[in-house]
Known about the structure:
Elements: H1 3-19, E1 38-40, E2 58-60, E3 68-69, H2 73-76, E4 84-86, E5 94-95, E6 108-110, E7 132-134, E8 155-157, E9 165-166, E10 179-181, E11 189-190, E12 203-205, E13 227-229, E14 245-247, H3 249-255
Parallel strand pairs: 1-2, 2-4, 3-5, 4-6, 6-7, 7-8, 8-10, 9-11, 10-12, 12-13
Antiparallel strand pairs: 13-14
Keywords: Leucine-rich repeat, Repeat, Signal
Pfam families: LRR_8
Signal peptide: 1-18
Amino acid sequence: MDFCAVLLVVTLCKVSMSAxxxxxxxxxxxxxxxxxxxxxxxxxxxTSIPKGGPTVRSVNYGYNNIFNLSANVFSYNGFAxxxxxxxxHNQITIIxxxxxxxxxxxxxxxxxxxxxxxxxxxxxxxxxxxxxxxLTTNKIRFRNRPFLKxxxxxxxxxxxxxxxxxxxxxxxxxxxxxxxxxxxxxxxxIADHSFQHLTNLVYLSLANSGVYRxxxxxxxxxxxxxxxxxxxxxxxxxxxxxxxxxKNEGVVDLxxxxxxxxx
Length: 263
C-alpha cells in the first residue's frame, strides 16, 4: 500500500468517527410529582363519591350533597388502602350494607351531620381494623336488636340523635368498645343488662340526656367504666352541687346509689 492509499484510509476513519453521534446514558427522569395519599373536596357540591386512587389513604368529602353510599362505592372508585373517611355534613340517608367492603385498612369513619336513621348491623363487619365511628347529629333511633357488629371498634359517638331508649341487645356485638358517647339524646330509659357486653368500656358519656338512674344490673360483675359523664341530666340534678364527670370510686358509688338511703 502506497502513501496515498494510507492517507486516504486515515482520512476516511476520521470522517467516520466525527460523524458517529455520541451515545448518552439515559438517566431516570427526576420529578417532584407523587401519587396522592390525601384527597379533600369539601363544599364542592359533590353528589357522589368521586374517583380516587390506589395510594389514597385519607379522604374528606365533607359539606357536600352526597345522598347515598352504594355497594362497594369506594373500591369501585379505585380506593384500596383508605384508613380514614370523612363525610360529615352531607345529605346521606342511605348506606348500603356493602358500601365499605374491601377497605381492610379502614380505621376512622366520620358520618356526622347527615340524615341517617338506621344502619345495617353488618355495615362495618368486614372492616377488621375499624377503631372510631362518628355518627353525631343524625336521626338514629335504637331498635330492640344489635346496633352494629364490629370486632374492632373502640370508639362510638352517637351524640345528638333521636335515641329514646337503650335496649339490652344494642351493644352486644361490640366487644372491644372503650368509649361510648351518647350525649344530647332524649334517652330516658336504659334497660337492665344494656352494657353487660361492654366489659372493656372505659368512658361512658350520657351528658345532656334524660337519664335519671344507673344500676349495677346494667353492667357485668362490677365491670364499670372508669369515667361516666352525667352533666345536665336528671340523675346529676339529684346532687348538690349537680354531678358532672364521675370517676373511679365515684362511679361505683353512683351506680350502686339505689342500695343506699341517702337520696
